[in-house]
Amino acid sequence: MSQFDSSGDLDLFRLCKQMLQAGWDAYASDLAGEVAARQDHLPDRGTWTLTIDRSGRWRFTATSKIGMADGRELVQGSHTWRLLKEKQQVLTISGRLSSQDDLADLLAELTQRALQETNPTSPEAEGDPS
Fold this sequence. Notes:
The chain has about 130 residues and is of the alpha+beta class. The protein is built from 2 helices and 7 strands, in the order αβββββββα. It has one domain.
Protein backbone atom coordinates (compact mmCIF):
# COMPACT_ATOMS: atom_id res chain seq x y z
CA MET A 1 0.00 0.00 0.00
CA SER A 2 1.52 3.31 -1.03
CA GLN A 3 1.61 6.36 1.17
CA PHE A 4 0.40 9.64 -0.29
CA ASP A 5 2.51 12.73 0.24
CA SER A 6 0.23 15.05 2.21
CA SER A 7 1.70 18.06 0.39
CA GLY A 8 0.08 16.70 -2.81
CA ASP A 9 -3.32 16.14 -1.25
CA LEU A 10 -6.31 18.04 -2.58
CA ASP A 11 -8.04 20.57 -0.33
CA LEU A 12 -11.26 18.72 0.56
CA PHE A 13 -13.00 21.80 1.90
CA ARG A 14 -12.20 23.82 -1.22
CA LEU A 15 -13.55 20.97 -3.37
CA CYS A 16 -16.67 20.90 -1.23
CA LYS A 17 -17.18 24.64 -1.66
CA GLN A 18 -16.78 24.26 -5.44
CA MET A 19 -19.38 21.46 -5.46
CA LEU A 20 -21.82 23.56 -3.44
CA GLN A 21 -21.35 26.49 -5.83
CA ALA A 22 -22.04 24.14 -8.75
CA GLY A 23 -25.43 23.21 -7.26
CA TRP A 24 -24.58 19.92 -5.56
CA ASP A 25 -25.35 19.02 -1.94
CA ALA A 26 -21.89 18.27 -0.58
CA TYR A 27 -19.88 17.75 2.59
CA ALA A 28 -16.21 17.21 3.30
CA SER A 29 -14.73 14.99 5.99
CA ASP A 30 -11.13 15.11 7.11
CA LEU A 31 -11.73 11.89 9.04
CA ALA A 32 -13.03 10.01 5.99
CA GLY A 33 -10.60 11.85 3.72
CA GLU A 34 -13.16 12.63 1.05
CA VAL A 35 -15.83 14.92 -0.30
CA ALA A 36 -19.23 13.36 -0.91
CA ALA A 37 -21.76 15.12 -3.10
CA ARG A 38 -25.28 14.40 -4.30
CA GLN A 39 -27.60 15.91 -6.87
CA ASP A 40 -31.14 14.59 -6.91
CA HIS A 41 -33.14 17.49 -8.24
CA LEU A 42 -32.67 16.63 -11.90
CA PRO A 43 -36.05 16.06 -13.58
CA ASP A 44 -36.48 12.41 -14.56
CA ARG A 45 -32.76 11.74 -14.04
CA GLY A 46 -32.79 10.15 -10.60
CA THR A 47 -29.86 10.69 -8.28
CA TRP A 48 -26.23 11.47 -9.06
CA THR A 49 -23.48 11.00 -6.47
CA LEU A 50 -19.81 11.89 -6.61
CA THR A 51 -17.10 11.16 -4.08
CA ILE A 52 -13.55 12.47 -4.35
CA ASP A 53 -10.79 11.45 -1.95
CA ARG A 54 -7.88 13.66 -1.00
CA SER A 55 -5.58 11.99 -3.52
CA GLY A 56 -7.98 12.84 -6.34
CA ARG A 57 -9.62 9.47 -6.96
CA TRP A 58 -13.29 9.96 -7.79
CA ARG A 59 -16.36 7.80 -8.33
CA PHE A 60 -19.53 9.07 -10.02
CA THR A 61 -22.80 7.14 -9.94
CA ALA A 62 -26.01 8.04 -11.80
CA THR A 63 -29.09 6.08 -10.74
CA SER A 64 -32.26 6.49 -12.80
CA LYS A 65 -35.63 4.78 -12.94
CA ILE A 66 -36.31 2.65 -16.00
CA GLY A 67 -39.84 1.53 -15.20
CA MET A 68 -42.87 2.09 -13.08
CA ALA A 69 -42.53 1.42 -9.37
CA ASP A 70 -44.59 -1.32 -7.74
CA GLY A 71 -45.66 -0.43 -4.21
CA ARG A 72 -47.69 -2.10 -1.49
CA GLU A 73 -48.31 -1.99 2.22
CA LEU A 74 -47.24 -4.79 4.53
CA VAL A 75 -48.35 -5.31 8.10
CA GLN A 76 -45.57 -6.89 10.15
CA GLY A 77 -46.58 -7.42 13.77
CA SER A 78 -47.72 -4.03 15.04
CA HIS A 79 -45.89 -2.14 12.25
CA THR A 80 -47.18 -1.08 8.86
CA TRP A 81 -44.49 -0.85 6.21
CA ARG A 82 -44.60 0.56 2.71
CA LEU A 83 -42.63 -1.56 0.23
CA LEU A 84 -41.57 -0.08 -3.08
CA LYS A 85 -39.90 -2.08 -5.84
CA GLU A 86 -38.19 0.01 -8.51
CA LYS A 87 -36.42 -0.90 -11.71
CA GLN A 88 -33.28 1.19 -11.96
CA GLN A 89 -30.33 1.75 -14.21
CA VAL A 90 -27.00 2.45 -12.52
CA LEU A 91 -24.11 4.09 -14.37
CA THR A 92 -20.73 4.21 -12.60
CA ILE A 93 -17.72 6.15 -13.87
CA SER A 94 -14.44 6.52 -12.00
CA GLY A 95 -11.14 8.26 -12.52
CA ARG A 96 -8.58 10.55 -10.95
CA LEU A 97 -8.67 14.33 -10.59
CA SER A 98 -5.17 15.69 -11.14
CA SER A 99 -5.85 19.21 -9.87
CA GLN A 100 -8.41 21.19 -7.88
CA ASP A 101 -8.78 23.41 -10.92
CA ASP A 102 -10.05 20.49 -13.03
CA LEU A 103 -13.26 20.03 -11.02
CA ALA A 104 -15.46 22.34 -13.12
CA ASP A 105 -14.44 20.57 -16.33
CA LEU A 106 -14.98 17.17 -14.69
CA LEU A 107 -18.51 18.13 -13.57
CA ALA A 108 -19.39 19.34 -17.07
CA GLU A 109 -18.03 16.17 -18.69
CA LEU A 110 -19.80 13.90 -16.17
CA THR A 111 -23.09 15.73 -16.73
CA GLN A 112 -22.80 15.34 -20.49
CA ARG A 113 -21.81 11.65 -20.28
CA ALA A 114 -24.53 10.80 -17.74
CA LEU A 115 -27.21 12.47 -19.85
CA GLN A 116 -26.02 10.58 -22.94
CA GLU A 117 -25.74 7.22 -21.22
CA THR A 118 -29.02 7.37 -19.30
CA ASN A 119 -31.16 8.74 -22.14
CA PRO A 120 -33.57 5.90 -22.94
CA THR A 121 -33.49 6.69 -26.68
CA SER A 122 -29.72 6.84 -27.08
CA PRO A 123 -27.91 3.87 -28.69
CA GLU A 124 -25.49 3.74 -25.73
CA ALA A 125 -28.37 3.29 -23.27
CA GLU A 126 -29.80 0.46 -25.38
CA GLY A 127 -26.54 -1.48 -25.43
CA ASP A 128 -25.46 -0.60 -28.99
CA PRO A 129 -21.67 -0.25 -28.88
CA SER A 130 -21.61 2.38 -31.66
